[in-house]
Amino acid sequence: MEDVLTQTIDYARERCEALFSEIDKLEQKDYPTKQSQKILFRFIKGANEQIRLKLDEIEKDTEIRQTLKPEELEQRVKRYCKFLPYLCNLLEYIEGSEIENTPAPLINPLRRLTRSCLPDSEVIFRSYSQLNYSYAPLTRLLREVFSDDTFSNLVQRLPNFFAVISFPKVEANYVLLHCMVAHEIGHGLYQEKNLEDDLIPLVKIDETTLDRLAKEIVESESNRQDVSGKDPLAEADVSESLRVKGLLTQGITKIIGNWVEELTADAFGVCIFGPSYFFAFINFVSAIRLLQSASFTHPSPRIRMNLMSHILNLLKPQEKDESVKSQQKHDRDTLGFENVFQGPTKRFVQKWVEVSSMQGRALYPIYDIVEKSITPIIPGICSKVMETMNGSEYTAQKYLEKTPTLRDLIVNIIPPNEVIDFKKKETTNTDVVSILNAGWEVYISHMDDFAKNYQELTYQSNKLKCDKKLNELLLKAIELNEIKTRWDEIGK
Amino acid sequence: MIESADSLKDLMFTKRESTREQLIISPILNWKEQVKRGSASVDLRLSCSFTIPKRSQLTNFDPLLESKYKRKSVKAVNGNGRKPRSRQNDLYVGIGDYLVLHPRQFVLGNTLEWIHLPCNYAAYVVGRSSWGREGLVIATATGVHPGYSGVLTLELTNLGEIPLKLYPGITIAQLFIHKVNTREKGVWDRSVFLGSTKAESGNPISDEDFFKIDNFKEREE
User: Fold this and answer.
1) Among B3, B155, B184, B208, which one carries the catalytic annotation?
2) pLDDT tens-digit map of A51-96
3) Most exposed residue of A244, A348, A402, B123, measured as fewest CB within 10 angstroms of its CB?
4) How far apart are CA A285 and CA A476, in angstroms?
5) Does B156 touch chain A (CB under 8 A)?
6) What tens digit of pLDDT does each residue of A312-328 get?
7) Are A467 and A320 in a shared domain?
8) A402 and A369 housed in the same domain
9) Between the CA of residue A210 and those of A237, A338, A395, what are the distances in Å?
């Protein structure tokens, strides 16, 4: 047994060395933002070092080796080595954020945007092989997994808000789609501001439908057992019905928690990115999911679009906004997004709002109950999110002020990173969100003009080529915008 | 006639009938440094994107093979229909980092600024003399045609004896702009490089020339 233990420690040490050598390799690579990666590198290296030290301790401590039983010794070795697979998994986050795996010019502006919503946050943006966008609260997860005292110093040094936002590698250069990141930032806000405590109590489970479903389940179980001839249930087994109802309520409560977080993240997405998040969501989700299909973790795209269209119309200029003070209240009320879209964009929005407001049944009855319970609190979610944004949301007025000029630049194959003030004879930097909103406006309504100006093409027969160029142009605008912003900041 | 820095500034800030007719050089990070009074050019900066030839993986560059692939007749050339290997690697060097250009090394870079010329203006891009004295050549194909819109690709070569550190963001080239006399209005450059956002290589053979040259060769066989 002694030999086996010595070998186990040796093998475990080999795993640690392999991990160190992979970390060395990754540290040589370039990352668009280095700070966040450094934090994770420090954690992985530190934890790996701790594991190696503990293995050395066990090996050298003859007293422990003599007093403990072999299986206890094995337990002790595994107590530390079990963390090695987690550490290896963490390296994936770093690997995906290499400069070659990400649209590098987009990362710093996204980081800046995230920090404007969550000050002092550290976020790693990485690409991965899934066709999905996701959010992982690293600090929270690491504190949960590495709760052993051995790692307490390392865990304490983690920033309070440290997360990984992942986006699909295959779509890396499709900048318009990356407005989906707004939803992931929304998850951060939901968790950071503890909105669960405010929103979940608002949900009242639809008892009538729940009772009906519990009854149906009990009846169907009873019928099934009748047919098989075993233990037939009484026709009205109240206790069984209550038990089923209890189980259903447990499940529903969990689903409600998940769905409320998703819907709130959507509402934040629209507040941060304006209609561009709504457009990106439709573009991404409608291609790969049924509008009616909900899951344990996510409400159906239909409900999500419904919420987004609701909050879009709330994004009116604030009373405190100086430029609005002089206007009539009537004017202010008409400045929701429902009134600012024109032409094909207006028709596009109307079409999808119509689809999202259609009534439909979920694939599973339990999701119907959750939907019925959550739908009444959608206005509550929206107002809570607006309250949290506290005036920093992207309003319809901003859209009206900036989009026409930026759109005109894009259509003429010019990146919309700044606008010219002809009176003052100076240029003004725009912002990422306005660039993306103008990009979507062009994508939905002006691609024929864009294609014509770009090498005299017809959009319908050169769709992929023109879409690619539009995305390249927007990425360029975002890059130039960030460089100018940073340049001016350093000057100050 | 070459426009002076002052008149270039006026041109940029005079509103035209349409955006297409506007002269745009964007962003200019430092007006005083880049559009100097009394000069006749605008200084341009080095951007973050580079394209580096894959010397270790390629035997040569064959423009005919590239054109054949584009016309989907590549099987006739190499028999397997495979796309010719990409000739270069893209490299992104953020501002604050640097790229070392070794003696006699050749890489493609581009200007940080987006250049949009009206239909009646053309331009020439030339290196800055202070860099030239270190052995850096920034461009060989220096003409920018009327109506061009995009970043300018720089063909960076170190003709000096010692390696050069190139920092994205440094002023590296000068753009001279002049008016073009033309009878045609609203006609502009629609080259394949229109809308270039990074250094791109292209095929020097046009489709029409390719067809004729290729047929010449077949007749000889």
Assistant:
1) B155
2) 999 999 888 888 887 788 878 888 888 889 999 999 999 999 999 9
3) A348
4) 26
5) no
6) 988 887 655 555 555 55
7) no
8) no
9) 16, 36, 39
